[in-house]
Design a protein that fits this description.
single chain; alpha/beta; Aspartate Aminotransferase, domain 1; Aspartate Aminotransferase, domain 2; binds pyridoxal-5'-phosphate
C-alpha cells in the first residue's frame, strides 16, 4: 500500500463521525442505544425542496456547473445574505461548495502558510483544529469560560493575536455550547480585529436559523460592515432545511478568497452537485414555514432536555441560545466510582459509563477541547430524550 503522507499525521477522523459509526455498530448488533450524539436534524427535507431537485433532474440540470455555483444559487444566497445582514454581496463574493465543512477547509487551504495561526475559541467544533493543521497552520485555542457564556472576550482575542495570526474563528450559534454572540459582543471583537489589519474572521453561522433568541442571529458583518472583506461568512442548507446529505454550503467574503476557493474546487471536485444546488435554491427561496415549525419543535425538546439534565445531581447543563445541543458540565462527577470499582477520571470514561449502564451515547468534552463536560443533542424525538434523561439519571445514581 502507498505510505501515507506526512500531513496525514496531522489529521484524525472526526470524533463525531467516529461516534456515529459506533452507534450504528451497536444498533446493528441489536443493542438499544439512545444516541444523544446526533449532529443533524431528524426531520425529512421539505417536500418542495425534493420536488425542485426532481424537476432539475428532469430538466437536464445534470451537468457540471461553474466551480463556485450556479447563477441561480448565487442569487438565492445573496438574497438571503441581504435579508440577514443588510449587505449586498456580488456574485464573485460568493462561493458554493459541498457543505460548509468543505468551504472552511478550502478557506484554510487557500490562505494558510506553514506556521500561520488560527485562533479557535474552545469549546470548539471538532473539525477546526484538524482542518488548520492539515493545511499547515497552527491552531491557537483559547479557553472560554461558563462565566462569559462560553464566548471569546475582546481581551482574550487581543492577547491571542500575534503577527502570525491569519484567522479568528467565530462560530455563532456555537457547536457544542449553543452560545450566540450578541451585537455588542461582536462589536467588541470586531474592534480588536479592526486594529490588526492582518487578521480576518471566519464566521461559521451554520446554525443561525435554529435559534431561540433574537432573529436574525447577529452577524459580525452587520456590526462591522467596513471589515466585510476580512470577514468570511460560512453557512449552508444542512441544518436549517434538514439537508445534510445534499452537501451544499456557501461562503461570502473577499472576491479574491472566493476565487481561490473556486480554483481549488475546479481542481478537486470541479463543482458542487448540480441537482443539490437546484434543491438549495428552492430551500433558500422557499419561505420560513419549515424553519419556524422545526424551531418550535426544537424549543420543546430543548426545554425537556435542559430541565431533565438540570434535575440530575452532578450535571450542570447550559441552556443553548441556538443549535440543537446542550453543553453539560459534569466536572462534579470526576473522581466518582462505578459499581465495578472503577474510578472515573475523564469525561471519556464517564461517557463509557453512560453507554455501559444505560445505553446513552454522548460526545465527551475532550473532543471539543474542554474536558469535564459532554455534549448532548436534542435532534431526537421527545420520547427518546425522555428515555435518555431517565437513563442518565440511573447511570449517575450508580456512581459513588
Ligand atoms: N460548522 C459547524 C459548527 C457544524 O457543526 C457543522 C456540522 O456538524 C458544519 C459546520 C458542517 O456543515 P455542512 O453540513 O454544511 O458541511
Amino acid at each position: 500500500a502507498p505510505a501515507p503522507a506526512e500531513r496525514m499525521s496531522r489529521v484524525k477522523e472526526s470524533p463525531s463521525s467516529r461516534v456515529a459509526d459506533r452507534v450504528r455498530e451497536f444498533q446493528a448488533a441489536g443493542r438499544k442505544v439512545l444516541p444523544l450524539t446526533i449532529g443533524e436534524p431528524d426531520f425529512d427535507t421539505p417536500d418542495h425542496v425534493k420536488e425542485a431537485a426532481i424537476a432539475a433532474i428532469r430538466a437536464g440540470e445534470t451537468k457540471y456547473t461553474s466551480a463556485n455555483g450556479t447563477p441561480a444559487l448565487q442569487k438565492a444566497i445573496t438574497a438571503r445574505l441581504l435579508r440577514k445582514t443588510g449587505q449586498s454581496y456580488a456574485g464573485d463574493e460568493i462561493c458554493v461548495g459541498g457543505g460548509a465543512k468543505q468551504l472552511i477547509f478550502l478557506a484554510f487551504m487557500a490562505t494558510l502558510d506553514e506556521g500561520d495561526e488560527v485562533i479557535v475559541p474552545a469549546p470548539y467544533w471538532v473539525s477546526y483544529p484538524d482542518m488548520v493543521t492539515v493545511n499547515g497552520g497552527r491552531p491557537v485555542t483559547v479557553a472560554t469560560t461558563a462565566d462569559e457564556g462560553y464566548k471569546l472576550t475582546p481581551d482574550q482575542l487581543r492577547e491571542a493575536i500575534t503577527d502570525r495570526t491569519t484567522w479568528v474563528v467565530l462560530n455563532t450559534p456555537n457547536n457544542p455550547t449553543g452560545a450566540v454572540y450578541s451585537e455588542s459582543e461582536l462589536r467588541g471583537l470586531t474592534d480588536v480585529v479592526r486594529a490588526h489589519p492582518h487578521v480576518s474572521i471566519l464566521c461559521d453561522e451554520i446554525y443561525d436559523e435554529i435559534n431561540y433568541g433574537a432573529r436574525p442571529v447577529p452577524s459580525a458583518v452587520t456590526v462591522a460592515p467596513d471589515l466585510r472583506r476580512r470577514i468570511f461568512l460560512v453557512n449552508g442548507v444542512s441544518k436549517a432545511y434538514a439537508m445534510t446529505g445534499w452537501r451544499i454550503g456557501y461562503g461570502a467574503g473577499a472576491a479574491g478568497l472566493c476565487a481561490a476557493i473556486g480554483t481549488l474546487q475546479s481542481q478537486s471536485s470541479s463543482c458542487p452537485s448540480s441537482v443539490s444546488q437546484a434543491a438549495a435554491v428552492a430551500a433558500l427561496d422557499g419561505g420560513r414555514e419549515f424553519i419556524d415549525r422545526t424551531v418550535g419543535i426544537y424549543t420543546e425538546r430543548r426545554d425537556l432536555l435542559v430541565s431533565g439534565l438540570a434535575a440530575i445531581d452532578g450535571l450542570r447543563p447550559t441552556a443553548p441560545e441556538g443549535g440543537f445541543y446542550v453543553w453539560v458540565d459534569a466536572s462534579a462527577l470526576m473522581g466518582s466510582v462505578t459499581p465495578s470499582g472503577k474510578r472515573i477520571t475523564t469525561d471519556a470514561e464517564l461517557a463509557e459509563h453512560f453507554l455501559d449502564t444505560s445505553g446513552v451515547v454522548v460526545i465527551s468534552g475532550d473532543s471539543y477541547g474542554c474536558p469535564g463536560h459532554f455534549r448532548a443533542s436534542f435532534a431526537l424525538s421527545s420520547e427518546i430524550i425522555g428515555e435518555a434523561v431517565a437513563g442518565l439519571a440511573r447511570s449517575v445514581e450508580l456512581l459513588r
